[in-house]
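Hey all, sorry for the wall of text incoming. These are the three entities for the joint prediction.
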Amino acid sequence: MMSVKPENFSPTRRQLLTVGGGAILISTVPLKAFAEEADLLRARTDIFGDRAIQEGRVTVKLPPIAENGHSVPITVTVDSPMSADDYVKRVAILSPRNPLPLIAEHHFTPLSGKAEVSSRIRMSGTQAIQAVAEMSDGSLWSGSMETVVTLAACVVL
Amino acid sequence: MSGIRLAVPETATKGEIVEIKALIRHPMESGFRRGSRGEVIPRDIITRFECDLNGQRVFASDFHPAVAANPLITFHMRASESGDLTFRWIDQNGQVWSEIASILVS
Amino acid sequence: MMRTSAIACSMVLASCGDASDAPEPTEIAPSDIQSGYTFLTAQTQTLQDDPFENPGYLWVDRGEQLFNMIAGPAVPSCASCHSDGLIGVAARYPSVDGQTGALLNLEGRINQCRTEHQELAVLPYESDALLSLTAYVAKQSQGAPLSVSIDHTNRQFYETGRDYFLTRRGQFNLSCQQCHTENWGKQLRGDTISQGHGNGFPTYRLEWQSLGSLHRRLRDCDTGVRAEPLPYGDPTYVAVELYLATRADGLEVESPAVRR
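and here's what came out:
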């Protein structure tokens, strides 16, 4: 019986293609892109469960072009009276393209007065950043905005 | 004391919504960067930010590696009473940095 | 017909390689001189202008502490001699040390003061303490126009710096001149090429996620064209700083600036 030592085994493309017709699809479809979208959806479910998310009431503001992906200014605003019985509980900021989908989670209270938060985030490439807000009544709302992120011209590394 | 900057209004009228900014010096090492020899630089980030007024929570954030270095956070507070605003940053190892600013509400 | 001969002529000139036949290197017209600030997006300009949000001020804050700090029982603080706060000083740097004749940038002068007047150890280049002190001192000249003049005391340093700027180097075989004087304003991939001035240093560079010195930037430039960078503090880099200061004559000191 032929034994295959893990350290010597490196399947050639031909070997992979002959394994099955499905392998042909794998080599042409950019799996990475889909995996990252799936990561964002999974993170959303982890945080908020399976509840429906409606688009609206949440505004994400990003510059149209990011100066540098290391630090991109972002402002998220949620339309809410922020009263004792009607306020935003938390907002999750999500990325479909970063190595980790969850960027930050902001927790508001009625004492916040206004459901708006600004910070600076890292973005690994052009993408639409999504913000999902959970209200005190349990409803979920979302908004997103895309920004262009390019590499520095003179890449040092 | 050094490495933290706060922008808090000294005074406010009751019910007024004021803007608060908090900045802390921290590399927020993501854990995804590599050094000159190709080695992974270990993650070292602040994971939590909290702001309380007289012990009552105003606002808090959970930070993950995609929060930029030297994190700045701008949020708001409905001025309700005078007192001390406590700002707290906690990193992944439990180390805490804190700072206090007073506000006079009339 | 005329067009073909013009192209042929320029091709012959280019292939000659003889420096004495080459035209005098161009300079940016004084009316065209622009700070790196003008090449930033509106958001980054706002960030630089905001003294609270500009991360460079985190180093200025620490620099102010170090400037006022009494390091030991018989050690004068920087502030005790420089009670005027060194306003406007950075705009005249790099400058020649009257006693030794050496060209010193701000970092070099700070270290010389430490050893000569405070009997303290030299701060390593690009260390947090030296960056902080340099940022604080440079900030005291914020808004002042750069004014470095060349005379017999510093002419040889100027020539060394200018020579470095004009020389092709690295695997890409590019000189600073080619990008920053001859092709500024044009696109290099996603970036618009700036004029390569140093009036904002030490600067908070978003790429570094930290404040850094002009030598760090020059090392990045050299690495960018795949040339061997010089060590931090190298006299040739200080000479380049002098040339850059004259080349940016009239631009305001913006330290601590924000750059991409």
